[in-house]
Amino acid sequence: MATEEEDVWAKATKVADDLYEIRDTFFPQNADDKTSKLQHESDLALNLLDSIPAEQRKLPARRAAYEYLRGKILDVVPDYRKEAEDHLSKAVKLNPSLGDAWLCLGNCIWKKGDLTSAKNCFNLALSKGPNKKILCQLSMLERRMAQGKGFYSLFFSSQLLLVILLCMVSGYLWSSEANLSVFELKISLLGISSADNQAEMVEESIQHAREAITLDVKDGNSWCKVLQTYNLGNACLTSFFVTGTWDHSKLLQSLKAYQNAEKDERMKSNPDLYFNCATVNKYLENYDRALAGFEAAALKDPSLNASEEVEKMVNLLNKLEILLRGHSKSKRLASLASTIGAVNLNSSYKRATLDALSEGLNKAVAVLGKVLLFVKHENITPLYFLVCDSDQSCFVLSVYGIRNDTIKEGDQLTLLEPHFRNIDFSWKEKCYKFKSIRVDFLEQVLVNGKALPPHQAIRTSIYAQHKP
């Protein structure tokens, strides 16, 4: 009799866990199919749970487990359900040591927008001992809370979109970092104190993500560890933007985390993994990898509208190619190049032309050039300019963290320690070949021989918002 009772409870627990496996790994072409499947499976799970005799459910040792499982099953859908919160609240009151119940309760409360209470749930659970799942959720919540108050926001529903400024896409809502639901876009001009506080909170998010992975080290390539690795990638990418898009290492850390998560076969069905890797590669100027990643994401989930990202990138690359070809033969180019004058530089910098640059970061090097034009495109960041050096070599300049009215046509620029890329790849039988310099922060640029004042800096911040 006892064995039969144990079997029923074990089966109910497994069914609840299987529900979340579906939520985290099932990505149909039609988002409604996922909603229908989750609703159908959750109804079956509730029927199984209700088949347990009432007298067994009311036993002190079982009552908390029943409330927890019922709340967990109800909470699997993306929308907030008060009924789920009520059951989970009862569970943690009856048995405060139920760590997963605290996790589910925090996620449920998060859905209704009470982030502080959600964080309290996670912290209360952690006070009873380290828990990798809760550390992972806390990491996501801290990134969400880093946005602060009083900013203009736009919401785009998607699973795990890394919405970059106003250029990204919409999709459907789901929980879990493996298929993160919604990303909230924040574009704000931040004061130093506010930006520092945001960066500090995101760094705490990264720390908690690392702690979760450390706790999971014995589990090898467990699914939980894969999700935690993915969470770390999202945290690093968010940090890249919050800190002003200058710390290139954050992008590389993010890409490495995504690549590690990608090794798990289950993640290969997740379109958001391809989307996020593509986003990182886009800002690393690995345009070929970015295009391939967005295309793969679009094939796996058309609702992500990743195909629009492909179209935007191709439009930009085509425009750059046409502009470079047109200006490289213009008489105006020789005239502008001849007006590039000397600039008083620190003796530690060596002046160089484009052809003398090495791939990557060029330390202690300064490149002088004239702005030919500002390149308008469909995204807000980065800013693109066509520039020529004294040898009349044209290149694309991508600028982050500077107001769009700071650099104007005809200005003389001094680029300190430029990050140089020689772009050369083919996409859909078309070859793209041009030279590119990236400017990551204000101090890298002198405009007409003068350093830029602090008020010309702008922090463009995005937040990966997990909405359970």
TrEMBL record:
Domain Tetratricopeptide repeat protein 5 OB fold, first and last residues per copy: 348-460
Domain of life: Eukaryota
UniProt keyword annotations, A-Z: Membrane, TPR repeat, Transmembrane, Transmembrane helix
Pfam family, one: TTC5_OB
Membrane-traversing stretches: 150-174
SUPFAM superfamilies: TPR-like
Renumbered ranges of TPR repeats: 99-132
Full protein name: Tetratricopeptide repeat protein 5 OB fold domain-containing protein
Species: Gossypium schwendimanii
